[in-house]
Design a protein that fits this description.
heterodimer; A: about 140 residues; alpha/beta; four-stranded parallel β-sheet; 6 helices; about 15% strand; globular; B: about 150 residues; Rossmann fold; 4 strands
Chain lengths: ~140, ~150
């Protein structure tokens, strides 16, 4: 089936900074790096099986972004019967850049925003892969 | 013989759970997150605990039982009420439910559409929602004391 759009779904992490880094990275891809090419959706709506959200995901190239190894975004999308095309973990980017320590859970500070920026570029690469697969 | 020991019918709530929807696609979702963190870290630190909502599906048994272990307040960004519905279905009935869009409509506060950045208006909304959560926390703790 042809994938007509790319949807990036960050996790709803609230306990550690990695969830916020994933969200900020997703917003950077949507608004700055690949504007108009990417959408997002609330993970909570996937949990309640919101029909509009499931429709949005059904024919999309779906990228999940998880803050930790619990993989909440990926598991919740799969539990709703939607195929995940690419799954990314924020923690993996952190492991490659341990010098960048986020300041707080939501107030990331400059190092945390740098991590988000690095992750955003990785996600932009996934968007480009999705578009090449379509082409 | 010493004084009689009073045995409580209902265990006293020591900590209250606060679970935001975290709605990633809307500003009100971001407000749920900021308001909950403010309550957890500053306003009712030590009296509140949280859990990432999707752990009701992806977490272990202890995490899935969160709302039965703690009287829980769900905080939703919109009237889809994802946090309230998911908590009820997957963990346990919430003790209180708060919907940010309704709270802000009552106060006549409008917020941006983008979930990305928080301006002065959105931070003012965070204050209002955090106060609402604190009110619910205090009520639950008072109920636990048998008032």
């Amino acid at each position: 089936m042809e994938k007509t759009r790319v949807v990036i779904l960050p996790c709803s992490g609230i306990g550690k900074a990695y969830g916020e880094i994933g969200r900020q990275a997703a917003y950077e891809v949507m608004e700055d790096l690949r504007p108009g090419q990417v959408q997002t959706a609330c993970l909570g709506r996937v949990m309640i099986r919101d029909p509009e959200t499931l429709e949005q995901l059904r024919d999309a190239y779906v990228v999940t972004v998880d803050g930790c190894a619990k993989d909440c975004a990926r598991k919740n999308v799969e539990a709703a019967g939607i195929k995940v095309d690419a799954a990314v973990r924020t923690i993996e980017v952190f492991k490659e850049h341990r010098e960048l320590k986020p300041a707080g859970v939501l107030e990331l500070g400059e190092p945390g925003m740098q991590l988000a920026h690095l992750l955003a570029h990785q996600l932009a690469g996934k968007v480009d892969c999705a578009e090449q697969e379509e082409g | 013989m010493g004084p009689a020991v009073r045995i409580e019918d209902k265990p006293r709530a020591v900590k209250v759970g606060v679970v935001p929807c975290n709605g990633e696609a809307m500003c009100e979702g971001t407000i749920t997150r900021y308001a909950c963190r403010r309550v957890l870290d500053q306003l009712r630190a030590g009296q509140t605990v949280t859990l990432c909502l999707p752990l009701f599906v992806a977490g272990d048994e202890k995490e899935k039982a969160f709302a039965t272990r703690f009287p829980t307040i769900t905080v939703d960004g919109c009237d889809k009420r994802c946090a309230a519905l998911s908590t009820e279905r997957l963990s346990g009935a919430p003790a209180r439910t708060i919907v940010v869009s309704e709270v802000l409509a009552d106060k006549g506060i409008r917020v941006a559409e983008s979930p990305r950045q928080m301006g002065d208006q959105e931070l003012a909304a965070v204050d209002v929602v955090a106060e609402e959560i604190c009110r619910a926390v205090d009520e639950i703790l008072r109920e636990g004391e048998g008032d």
